[in-house]
Amino acid sequence: MSSFINRITRHFAPSSSIGVTSEGGGSAAASGTTEMATVAAGCFWGVEHIYRKHFKDYGLIDAKVGYIGGDTKNPSYSKVCGGATGHAEALQITFDPSKVSYRTLIEFLYKIHDPTTLNRQGADAGTQYRSGIFYHNEEQKRIAEEVTKMANENWWNNQISTAIIGATDWWDAEKYHQKYLDHNPGGYECPTHYVRKFRLPEGYAQDKPAEAK
């Protein structure tokens, strides 16, 4: 019951907690030996939490929750939840490719949510909860398509609905959403956000370094 109440009341966080949003890549653009990955998989609290937990010692430099894929500027959480802006709740990861590959991060995406439920994760319904991969260059697009094909054929019974599209303007979510489950350990977690024990198919080319355990 407490999780349900937390989920409902997330719309009503005090305005004093609101952070500054930014256009076109809320966190600093990747440069040098760092790269960026942007994914959506339902409620961004759980997506951020699970990526941070599993890759904190394996190449994850930073992770921020925010909004992408919409058609308005400076979207607020309440407007995104209303479905009027077209944005998805998403996670933007800055990572060290010498420690973890983009391919591994996308494979992990298909292990930690249900990509078969269009515009829904668990009880959370709406286009803001859609599954998506927002690529930043053609190489990421190629990898995302390869991983999606593998996951669709081997893990999800050819039912994946995840959209693969080019990254558009990124807006950081309000400050109180960042690391939400670290600050609120009893907060709402979507029941679809957990690591599934899928195995890579025989002959599938896994990038190195190896995936975090």
Structure commentary:
One of its GO terms (biological process) is cellular response to oxidative stress. Belongs to the MsrA Met sulfoxide reductase family. Residues 37-190 form the Peptide methionine sulphoxide reductase MsrA domain. The strands form 2 sheets. A 6-stranded mixed beta sheet has the order 7-6-1-3-2-8, with helices on one face. A two-stranded antiparallel ribbon has the order 4-5. Helix 5 (138-154) links the parallel strand 6 and strand 7 (163-166). It has a single domain, classed as 2-Layer Sandwich (Peptide Methionine Sulfoxide Reductase, Chain A), CATH 3.30.1060. The model is unreliable at 1-31 (pLDDT under 50). Helices cover 26% and strands 18% of the residues. It is built from 6 helices and 8 strands, in the order αβαβαβαβββαββα.
Which residues sit in consecutive blocks of at least 5 with pLDDT less than 50? 1-31
State the CATH superfamily name: Peptide methionine sulphoxide reductase MsrA
- CA radius of gyration is 16 Å
- Mean pLDDT, to the nearest integer, reads 86
CATH class call = Alpha Beta
Order of helices and strands: HEHEHEHEEEHEEH
Strand order of the largest sheet: 7-6-1-3-2-8
Percent of residues in helices comes to: 25-40%
Our estimate of the beta-strand percent is 15-25%
